[in-house]
Specification:
Length: 160
């Protein structure tokens, strides 16, 4: 079982950064990991454009990513094809039709959180990017929040 939140956040991140840097979206490589939404970890330290490291305007990126859901809701009221595209892309990889890397929520190191998975012949292998100290701390925070939330779902407080 996989979750697609990090996949969607990564796609939105790459589109946003491409627009802010005025480059084609295909030129941007970068990941958003951890949890979906406000607690997402933008891996700015390993983001590249055309294979070269780039300064990521994190404040502008975060502002745009935070505002995006509201713009979608006020515009069409729902996403059009992001989740469906993420599912289809993942199916192609998981079924071995293509090899590639995508960000998915999956079990890793005892917790469930979004990480890059490299699929080869349908087999996923975690491939976390190198994180700077801030990104590592943000990922730890996201993992802790998610672990707490998942634990509460399995063992609700006060349940016997």
């Amino acid at each position: 079982m996989f979750g697609i939140g990090s996949h969607l956040d990564t796609a939105r991140y790459r589109l946003t950064l491409a627009r802010l840097l005025n480059v084609p979206k295909e030129a941007v490589r970068g990941h958003v990991i951890g949890e979906h939404g406000d607690g997402a970890v933008i891996c700015a330290s390993t983001t590249t454009v055309n294979g070269h490291p780039v300064h990521v305007p994190l404040k502008a990126v975060r502002e745009e990513l935070t505002a995006r859901p509201g713009r979608i809701s006020s515009g069409i009221g729902r996403t059009r094809s992001g989740p469906a595209g993420a599912v289809l892309s993942t199916l192609r990889l998981a079924l071995g039709h293509h090899d590639g890397t995508t960000e998915l929520t999956t079990p890793h190191n005892g917790d469930w959180y979004g990480i890059p998975l490299r699929f080869t012949a349908g087999q996923p292998v975690p491939c976390l990017p190198t994180l700077d100290s801030t990104e590592a701390q943000l990922l730890h925070t996201a993992r802790t929040r998610l672990h707490t939330a998942y634990t509460e779902l399995v063992h609700p407080e006060g349940a016997s």
